[in-house]
Amino acid sequence: MKIPVHYAADLDRLETWVKYRNGLCRDCRASCCTLPAEVRMGDLVRLGLVDEFEAEGPAKDVARRLVKAGIVERYNHRSELFTLARMSNNDCVLLDGRTRRCTVYEKRPDTCRNHPQVGPRPGYCAYAPKPG
Predict the structure, then answer these.
(1) Nearest residue to 43 (alpha-carbon basis) of 6, 10, 95, 80
(2) Fewer CB within 10 Å, N or C, the chain?
(3) CA 11, CA 60: separation in Å to the nearest integer?
């Protein structure tokens, strides 16, 4: 029998995060999708936001275009990481606000594929139960 979790983790306080276990995402309101998501050029290609030809050019040009389109918030040229934009409520631009599910799940970035094995507290997630 599954024991319900009756509280929501505080994103800013890692000690409140819950040890990840299979099935936890099903009842969560996708709080991990409010964290800044850093992606690489390969992720942008897989998402279909950048084609192979454009990916071979200057990343700052790609960043400029994607910032203008509201898909990327910023680009760090040293780490070569793009940070996906978030909406005013901090949701990732790729998250469906109604269903709380990723709109590009099959093509999602590596950062998302590897969460929570990597991240601010590996093996733990900021579980927040769906209202209801």
Answers:
(1) 80
(2) N
(3) 30
Q: Is residue 70 a contact partner of residue 64, using CB atoms and an 8 Å limit? A: no
Q: Which amino acid is at 106?
A: E
Q: How far apart are CA 106 and CA 44, in angstroms?
A: 13
The pTM is what?
A: 0.87
d(CA 34, CA 126): 10
Mean pLDDT of 87-94: 96
Q: Are strands 101-102 and 124-125 parallel, antiparallel or unpaired?
A: unpaired
| Token pair belonging to 30 | 């996708």
Alpha-carbon distance of 109 to 107, in angstroms, equals 7
Query: At a CB cut-off of 8 Å and minimum separation 6, what does 93 contact?
Result: 70, 71, 84, 85, 86, 87
Q: Is the pLDDT confidence value at 7 over 90?
A: no
Rounded to an integer, what distance in angstroms lies between the CA atom of residue 81 and that of residue 101?
Answer: 24
26-83 tens-digit pLDDT = 889 999 999 999 999 999 999 999 999 999 999 999 999 999 999 999 999 999 999 9
Task: Report d(CA 19, CA 16) in Å as an integer.
Answer: 10
